[in-house]
Amino acid sequence: MSGLDSARLSFHGFLSPWVAGLLLGAAAVGIFILYFKERGKFGAPRRVLMALLRIAVVGMALFLLTRPVLVAETKGERARGIVLLIDNSLSMTQRDQRLSPGDRLRVALAENLIAPDATITDAAVGSEVPAGTSDDPSRAALVRAALANPRLKLLEGLAKPGPLRVSFFGQRVRGLPDEQKDPKASPTPLGERISREMKNEETLTSLADAILDRLTKNETDLPAAIVVITDGQDNASRESLDEAARQCARLNVPLHIYGVGSSEVGNLELKDVVIPETIFFDDTVAVPVRWRCRGFKQGSAEIVLTLGGQVVARKNVALKEGEDFREELTFTPRKSGGGDEKTELKASLRYKGNETFSQDNELKRPVTMVDRKVKILYIEGSPRWEYKFLQTALLRDRRVEAKFLLASADQRALGSGGPYLPAFPAARQDLFAFDVLILGDVALNFVGPERVAWLRDFVREGGSLIFIAGRQHAPSEYSATPLAEVLPVEFASVRFASAALERPQAFVPQLTRTGSRSEMLALADTPDESQRTWQSLPGFYWFFPATKLRPGATALLVHPRQKAGDQSVPVAATHYYGKGQVLYMGTDETWRWRANGGEKIFGRFWGQVIYQMGLPHLIGTPKRVQLALEKPENILGKPSTVYARVFDAEFRPFTGPKVNGRLERTDAKPGEERSRAIVLDPVPGLPGEYRALLSHDTVGKFLLKVDEPVGASLDYRVGLPPQHELQVGAMDAEGLRQAALAAGGKFYREEDLHTLAANLQPLKATFLTRHETLLWNSPMLLLFVSLIAIEWILRKFSNLS
Asked: What is the pairing mode between strands 689-694 and 747-748?
């Protein structure tokens, strides 16, 4: 309904109206003068009439040169439209596990198996779910069913208050495409068009931004209400849902939200479990467990550790939303039989209630339980600080049996027994009975040439050597002995000034790429945290200036500033010599870590060193292929690298052109790819190091197998990144409810949809319609010609030319 509100002339020509008026006035005076000077025999009235006609012609010509436009505005009212926003993102393809009778009845209602006004509650235990109700349909399927439900008549009801404008949203908003109408064909029903356009392929959701887009697209033409169909997930909006609701309230546009999905969905996931491959009977084992929680904002869960089928530890944890929770469980394995035992440790995380998705609630690790202690012989020249603190740590460690030989000690003290040896082992077999030999700053003449050869043979036959450099004797005095070829670094004899005269600058050693993956050097549960811990440690002041690495050796720690040629000076390095492993420590100042409460770091470092170095000789199975992932947590779409350290039968670095393996997906479903070949290529400059890029293009559990030169395997899991569209999560019922109420609307579940149309109030919008009519048109031209013709006729009748 509309009526005329105003009308006016507007001029768009090069000649302005006032100039045209002046010209017309001057022309009128001239025309009257000319007509009254005409000689014709006719009276004054005719002269005046013809003058007026001529003035009218000139005036019309000037008027048309101003390009006059008639502007008319009509004012009226029309019904304000209803905006329907439908979530078209990937999260709508999720299949919620309908655990409660109420949730299953909601499916039945959407699928027209029960009445639209049926009473449904989450505690509807006594209600029977109709036969034929779909089992756990996707959220998108539920939307299609609700829109097509002939008893709900949802789309018909939404269109009653005003024109219905349908849009889809994911990362962006797009309207429902216009139908290509064939004049002879009947139009496609709106429900079918919506169902056809629901692709659910959008990889991001901008729920709040979509509401604001439809709200502010044209503030002069606001909708009567915005109806949103969504599961509430929003991972890409610039604004919050609360802000969108406040904007709706400010503009008096109610927000009505149909929440799709189950609000009971939640997911607990075990991210990582850190446990050594070998543990000792009667030793307390600490197992760090990392986990995440999604969807559960309250309640509790239980973490359980099972060793060989027997529960050895359990812990209750309170639940809240979070991506990285950590707990530490401890247990002490007891001996049940004779000898070593190979078994499996399983960690499980269980929600105390119903959980939708539980495939990621368990992690398994193979372990070997050992009924022996690592036997260590520590030979030192004088009781320097490193010796004092390390001796204390070794005596406290229940996994080791340590003996100490101090060259400068009083012989009566050495002969007192206990952990001290009175002299160097008298026979080779006595030395070879140890698993690990720690050799400190010992004078060459104390060891003797024959025993230096024993040390070489000890390592060659599979024993482990930890060499801690010193200022006085080692390694300078050993440069021309068999021990020099055992060490992973080359060096020259160096004499150091007295420590009291030195004024060195402190340095914090840097982890190399290999060092960052080494279990010996892990000072935290994740590589990133370990790196930060290393960077925060107190600095060292002294190091031995090794000249370079031996072929096949690997640096684990390097000096941040000092160079040997084009390489950084190694502070810690390792390699295999024969069947044994050697660790070179080019500093004797790790004791400084104990400052400011660093006892735990000092103990962890040396405990891991002793553990890693001693176990191969203890259990007799040194690894020729060692596999390690670049990161402990593997995320879909973020490639990472797997590394392999490979040795030949003589434990020299393997030099083959490549290492072949296979990548198996252990949880693949029928029809999905289960296995693919993988090739690990050599790492330049690091003999025996190989690597391959893992694409992580599929979520699931994987097993990487290497068959050459010997078999080895590594299992890992690829998960979804935080807030991914397919990440298991509940419909955000509370967040959607609060937003709808804040905007003056309501929140709906399936049982409320029959009231939605009635809650939409029809509103009128006032509008002004502007019509512009160009007056240089056919009627004006006809009038102009008519005036000229009349004047011409009168002139002819008056015998004027």
From this structure: unpaired
Q: How far apart are CA 455 and CA 483, in angstroms?
A: 7
* Better pLDDT: 323 or 506: 506
CA–CA separation, 302 and 527 (whole Å): 27
Verdict on whether the full-model pTM lies above 0.70: no
Question: Both tokens of residue 634?
Answer: 């593997």
Please give the distance of CA 52 from its chain centroid, rounded to a whole number: 86
Using CA atoms, how far residue 571 sits from 483, 542, 586, in Å, is: 18, 10, 5
**CA atoms within 13 A of residue 87's CA, in its CB half-sphere:** 33
**DSSP per position, 255-318:** EEEEE-S-TT--EEEEEEE---SEEETTS-EEEEEEEEEES--S-EEEEEEEETTEEEEEEEEE
Would you give the DSSP letter of residue 505?
P
Look at residue 393 and give its three-state secondary structure.
helix
Question: Tell me: the pLDDT tens digits for 55-76?
Answer: 888 888 887 788 888 887 777 6
pLDDT tens by residue, 535-568: 999 999 999 999 989 888 889 999 999 988 888 9
What sign results for the dihedral spanned by CA atoms 481, 487, 492, 497? negative
Residue partners of 706: CB distance under 8 A and separation at least 6: 625, 627, 644, 659, 660, 661, 680, 712, 713
- Exposed e or buried b per residue across 388-401, where buried means at least 16 C-beta atoms within 10 angstroms of its C-beta: ebbbebbeebebbe
C-alpha angle 561-576-511 in degrees, rounded to nearest 5: 25
Radius of gyration of the chain (CA): 44
Q: How many residues does the chain have?
A: 801
* 3-class state of residue 674 by DSSP: coil
Task: Give the chain's domains with CATH numbers.
Answer: 2-77+768-797 (no CATH), 81-180+188-261+730-762 (3.40.50.410), 267-370 (2.60.40.10), 374-619 (3.40.50.880), 625-719 (2.60.40.1930)
Task: In whole angstroms, give the CA distance from residue 447 to residue 301.
Answer: 58
Report the chain's mean pLDDT, rounded to a whole number.
85
Contact in structure between 269 and 719 (CB atoms under 8 Å): yes
Residue with tokens 């203890």: 618
Residue type, 637: G
Q: How many whole angstroms from its chain centre is CA 336?
A: 45
State the DSSP H helix or E strand holding residue 107, giving kind and residue range, or none if neither.
helix 101-110
DSSP result, 198-213: ----BSS--HHHHHHH
Give the full edge-to-edge strand order of the sheet including 322-331: 267-273, 285-294, 322-331
Contact in structure between 411 and 614 (CB atoms under 8 Å): no
452 and 392 Cβ atoms separated by less than 8 Å: no
For residues 746 and 106, what is the distance between their CA atoms, to the nearest angstrom?
18
Residues 559 and 504: beta-carbon distance below 8 Å: no
Contact criterion met (CB below 8 Å) for 319 and 293: yes
The helices-and-strands tally (H runs, E runs) of the chain is 19, 35
- CA–CA distance, 196 with 147 (Å, rounded to integer): 12
DSSP string, 575-641: EEETTEEEEEE--S-GGGGGTTTTHHHHHHHHHHHHHHHHHHHHHT---SEEEEES-SSEETT--EE
What residue has token string 């530490």?
328
